Amino acid sequence: MTKDFDRIYNLYKNDIYHLALSYTKNIKDAEDIVQNTFIKFYKQKNSFENDIAIKKWLIRVSINECKNLFLSAWKRKTKPLTEVEENTLESAIAEDNLLEVLFSLAKKDRIVIHLYYYEDYSIKEIAKLLKTNEGTIKTRLYRARIKLKEILKEDINYENTRKIQKCNETI
Amino acid sequence: MKIQEKYKNAMKQFKISDSVEERILKKVRTKEKSYFKIALASLSIMLLSVISISFVYAEEIKEYWQNVKVNFTHDNNENEEVLKQNFGYKKTLVDDIELDSGYDEKTNTNHYGYIDSYEKYGEWISLNKLESDLGIKLLKYDEMMKDAYEYTLLSENFKENKKVQLIRIRNPYLYYYAEDESHDATCTGNDACITMLAFILTQNANPNNYKDYLDGRNLAASPTYIETMEHEQFGKVLIYSNNSVVKDITATFTYDNVIYLINGLNKVTLEQIKDIINELHY
């Protein structure tokens, strides 16, 4: 059991951590979610067909953990990420435009984007994982993509403007 | 670069800290240890309970198994059969008697010679006293001599098992066709005589004995079966001959947890044996 647990843990710990991070936008919360998810995995008695099935189970449990975290009274009283000092995530987000854009999306959209782009799940699979219909997933994905495009376009325009400025300065 | 690749690369920089990893694995190990402790504790409690129950109800458990299932193995070891039987090893007052004191060892020289026998009483006693001594009830034949009984405590393999296994009750005066008046209890000579033997298997009995008596093999290894009679009250009655030096005819059946053997010698006929059986009553 322990050997099996170690293998699964090493295989999926980062995936679960990244999913929790993209949902909670908080390193400590994400770590707690990883911990709770894997403790639940250790305690569970299900028999899985393969590692893919295990991963889906872990993702489902970690999403529930994320939702529970935001529902808890304790969490509602805590300050949002932007107000927390010395959070390494904040600086990392600030340095990366894409992360900044993604993390600015609503929680519901963020998780869809994460499962679609990071986990490479299909719309059908995401709908199943989030227990919602495919139409909703498509809508969320579409909404998120528009925002991404807008921000990325701005970014590209900004980069182009900077390039032009630089060219002008050299001339 | 596509968004997908960009996103994956961006996320790669975030990794779970070593301290958190250590904490998770430690928690799992602690849980594993606690599961082991719980399992061990549960097992110990179960074991203790089983031992306690076995200790407290030892007698009942022993009695239960003796009554429900007895394994019989044939002498030739060819087959082993399990008989679910009604015979409940009649509880008698001699069950707890150990034969290593107060008994004079005798070598039995009669045809029961293969069984070591230890005689408690060397004298004849009345049927009433016998029934009250042993806590049993025996079938009687009409006006048969009620004061001419003897009983012998038998123990096979005495040296190994000093507990009473069988009680043999004998009434040699059951029926006599004496040619002269000077007959004795041993039914010698050419006199026609019928003896009734009753065997009680005690709780220490070897089940093979019971099987032998039922099959008529207690006296001869290969008896000649004459007839099987279905008696209204006593059920199956096996009639056979032991092929002894004198003409013999024996009927055996089990009634109320006692094995009865009606043994006729010399001129006794099958009809006379049947008549005796039909007359038996409490």
Topology:
The complex is a heterodimer of chains A (171) and B (282).
Chain A: H1 2-24, H2 27-43, H3 51-71, H4 73-77, H5 88-95, H6 97-104, H7 107-118, H8 123-129, H9 134-170
Chain B: H1 3-12, H2 18-56, H3 58-68, E1 70-73, E2 80-83, E3 104-106, E4 117-119, H4 127-134, E5 140-141, E6 150-154, E7 166-177, E8 192-201, H5 207-215, E9 224-231, E10 235-241, E11 248-255, E12 258-265, H6 270-279, E13 280-281
Antiparallel strand pairs in B: 1-2, 3-4, 4-6, 5-13, 6-7, 7-8, 8-12, 9-10, 10-11, 11-12
Description:
The complex is a heterodimer of chains A (171) and B (282). With 171 residues, chain A is mainly α. Chain A is 81% helix and 0% strand. Chain A is globular. Chain B has 282 residues and is α+β, with helices and mostly antiparallel strands. In chain B, 31% of the residues lie in helices and 27% in strands. Chain B is built from six helices and 13 strands. Chain B has helices at 3-12, 18-56, 58-68, 127-134, 207-215, 270-279; strands at residues 70-73, 80-83, 104-106, 117-119, 140-141, 150-154, 166-177, 192-201, 224-231, 235-241, 248-255, 258-265, 280-281. In chain B, strand 10 (235-241) and strand 11 (248-255) form a beta hairpin. At the A-B interface, helix 1, helix 2, helix 6 and helix 7 of A face helix 1 and helix 2 of B.
Question: Keyphrases for this structure?
Answer:
heterodimer; A: 171 residues; mainly alpha; 81% helix; globular; B: 282 residues; alpha+beta; two-stranded antiparallel ribbon; 6 helices; 13 strands
Q: Biggest sheet of chain B, strands in spatial order? A: 3-4-6-7-8-12-11-10-9
How much helical structure, as a percent, in the residues of chain A?
Answer: over 70%
List SSEs of chain A in N-to-C order.
HHHHHHHHH
Mean pLDDT of chain B comes to: 72
Kindly name the structural category of chain A: mainly alpha
Helix content of chain B: 25-40%
> Most extensive interface, residues per chain?
A-B, 31 and 22 residues
For the largest beta-sheet of chain A, the strand count, sense and barrel status come to: none
Alpha carbon gap, first and last residue of chain B: 108 Å
Shape call of chain A: globular
Largest sheet of chain B: 9 strands, antiparallel
**Rg measurement of chain B, Å:** 33 Å
Structural class of chain B comes to: alpha+beta
